[in-house]
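[Meeting: bench + compute handoff]

Bench side (C.D.) handed over the final construct sequence. Compute side (W.E.) agreed to return the predicted structure before the next meeting so the bench team could plan truncations. Sequence as handed over:
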Amino acid sequence: MCSSDLSIEAPAGLIAPGGANLVDSALRDAAFPMRSVTIDIEETALCTPDGLAAAERLRARGWGVGLRCAENCPLPLGSRSRSLFSEVLAETPADLSPALGLADPDLRPLTRRIRAAAAAGIATTALGVKSPAHAGLLAALGFERGAGPGYPV
């Protein structure tokens, strides 16, 4: 039995009919403990009723569901989404600078998303952390964790 946490990207067939059942069966067959696995799903795949339904089936079976943010963050973090996601993941902004943390956070979809997720108690993870200084800037924007060649946030 696996004892460490694992995040995996959602397979391509997840949204297809029966896809969530296949993923659930495969994880159970591999003897992963519930809540130790987070399945990261691209936001664009969730902008359909079938996409959200597949994610809800996985979450209802006990698996974590991560939202991999699209650049424009089209999916609102309403009550349905807040109960669905265990983590929000986002690529680091290309224009990341200390001034970005001081700018009006409501002007950018990503900063609105990160603040809304944090307020809802959803873990926020920055992808592509390059260095400790980069991690510090990301933490100032509201990210709690990081992944990448640099140090974690």
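W.E. noted at the follow-up: The beta strands are 6-9, 37-42, 64-68, 87-91, 123-127, 145-147. C.D. will use this when planning the next construct.
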